[in-house]
From TrEMBL:
The entry's keywords: ATP-binding, Nucleotide-binding, Transferase
Key word Nucleotide-binding present: yes
Name of the molecule in the record: Corrinoid adenosyltransferase MMAB
GO biological process, one term: cobalamin metabolic process
Chain's role: Converts cob(I)alamin to adenosylcobalamin (adenosylcob(III)alamin), a coenzyme for methylmalonyl-CoA mutase, therefore participates in the final step of the vitamin B12 conversion. Generates adenosylcobalamin (AdoCbl) and directly delivers the cofactor to MUT in a transfer that is stimulated by ATP-binding to MMAB and gated by MMAA.
Organism: Campylorhamphus procurvoides
GO molecular function, one term: ATP binding
Gene that this polypeptide is encoded by: Mmab
Amino acid sequence: ARAPRIYTRTGDSGFSSTFTGERRPKGDRIFEALGATDELSSAIGLAGEFSSEKGHTFVGQLHKVQCMLQDVGSNLATPLSSAREAHLKRTSFSEKPVLELEQWIDSYSEQLPPLRAFILPSGGRSSAALHFSRAVCRRAERCVVPLVQAGEADPNVAKYLNRLSDYLFVLARYAAMKEGKEEKIYIKPEP
């Protein structure tokens, strides 16, 4: 049997399909949100690889987050305005992953020294990659919020991304601490 081709040519005219079968322009805000979420998963994958090289135990959590981002994408690709009950059943997104992130944040935060200044993305490769992931996460959230406000996506998706950026920030600090790397602080330049 021959392997299926990776290309379909269906998007060559600048349109793509949602899970509900709608054809929308590739510049539609749904595809912007999907693209930002995909980029976020890729950034987390890179951070996970750097973290794995350092033996961090949280790498499994990052993999779980990437799997959750697939579910985020499924929800985003299923606009509520055109979804049937069968679509909604397959792509629903609950608050449970949000609560799990909060538990992880609390667990790592308890182990960190108090934050007394603004820190810059730094603290070694693992930490810097996690900070980069946090910045991508904020952009993904900014893409998702208008979809939620328009009633096209589940509010728990936006909550998850909001909490995920907090988790990535705390995890970046934790990685720097565990690796014995210094976090660079913001110093206001003199005029």
